[in-house]
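User: Modeling request: complex.
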Amino acid sequence: MRSIRRAIVASACAGAVLVLTGPGSTATIDMPRRAVVPATAPNAQKPAVILKRIPFGATRKHQMAAYSKRHYGTWAWRLQDPKVIVEHFTGGNSFTSAWNTFAANSRHLGEMPGTCAHFIIDSNGRIYQLVWLTIRCRHAVGMNWTAFGIEMVGTSDHQILNRPKQIGAAYRLTLWLMQRFHIQLRNVIGHHENLISPYHHELYPSWRCQTHADWNHADMKVFRRHVRAMAILHHVPIGPAPVWVHPNC
Ligand SMILES: [Zn+2]
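Assistant: Request completed. Predicted assembly structure:
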């Protein structure tokens, strides 16, 4: 019985391969072309950030850990593996006054520590970082155990959406945080969306409906649409479609 020696002698990029079908004879056969798509790494640049830290020493960390224990069930001040970015506006027109409010560590809703944000973006687009990104900051009820807080100086969503430098800075900062911490776009939320986030968790029944009017659902759709377009441009993973929950209150 005659055996036919068969060996592939060329392949890879070509759509056809040359095959030895026997001594001295060859044939080409078509092979399905395998798409070779080079993986493009995410390349969103970190925007310029000015470090202007608020006091967050041992006492405030202890207060934050106690807050976490009361509201989330775990004694912790460290922000580990954050899953959410919460967008806010300050309700005023001054960066300095917002920074002073967060630095003061004043009682809020009858409890310590005071309110806080990881970043404040001034109306001119300058981004300030207030605490290290490994610290839990008290900025949105139900979310502080897993969320970064970004405050924008201003008094309404629309005012800020119409300030190209400021909103552009917010998009760039949000995108970079998504890339750096693998945060899905659906978990970029407005403060007013905290109650419908699947990450919302609050042990105090009387606080379970606590929200604020800043960055509502309709305006956050605009916000996320812009960030989505930038994410595609910079190859930052977006993640699955949003899953909103019914408020647990
Ligand atoms: Zn807010």
